[in-house]
Amino acid sequence: MIVLGVILLIIGFVANIAILWTIGIILVAIGAIFFLLGSLGHAVGGRRHYW
Predict the structure, then answer these.
(1) How many C-beta neighbours within 10 Å does residue 7 have?
(2) Which 3 state secondary structure label does DSSP give 34?
(3) Is-contact 28 5, C-beta < 8 A?
(4) Is the CB of residue 11 less than 8 Å from the CB of residue 17?
(5) What whole-number distance in Å separates Cα of residue 26 and Cα of residue 24?
(6) What pLDDT shows up at residue 50?
(7) Which backbone phi and psi does 3 adopt, to 5 degrees?
(8) Contact, 47 vs 17, CB < 8 A?
(9) Residues whose CB is less than 8 angstroms from the CB of residue 42 and which lie 6 or more positions away in sequence, other chains included
(10) Residue 44 and residue 27: Cα distance in Å, rounded?
(11) Which residues of the chain are modeled with pLDDT < 70?
(12) Residue 34: what pLDDT?
């Protein structure tokens, strides 16, 4: 999810499309939260580890 967010950020920045930029920021934030929760040992989405 983090990688997809970064790709959308890059495409949104290069093509100057604001909606892709916004969606990319949201995906990076959600991916980072899931990564942190998974690394702390909390189950995320029914999985013990999220990466």
Answers:
(1) 13
(2) helix
(3) yes
(4) yes
(5) 5
(6) 52
(7) -65, -45
(8) no
(9) none
(10) 16
(11) 43-51
(12) 83
Query: How many C-beta atoms lie closer than 10 Å to residue 24's C-beta?
Result: 20
Cβ neighbours of 37 (radius 10 Å): 14
Structure tokens at 11: 């495409």
Q: Which of the 8 DSSP states describes residue 48?
A: S
Q: In angstroms, rounded to a whole number, what is the distance separating the alpha carbons of residues 14 and 21?
A: 10
How many helices and strands (H and E) does the chain possess? 2, 0
Structure tokens at 35: 């990564």
Torsion over CA: 15, 17, 19, 24 (sign): positive
**pLDDT at 35 (0 to 100):** 84
* Structure confidence at residue 46 (pLDDT): 64
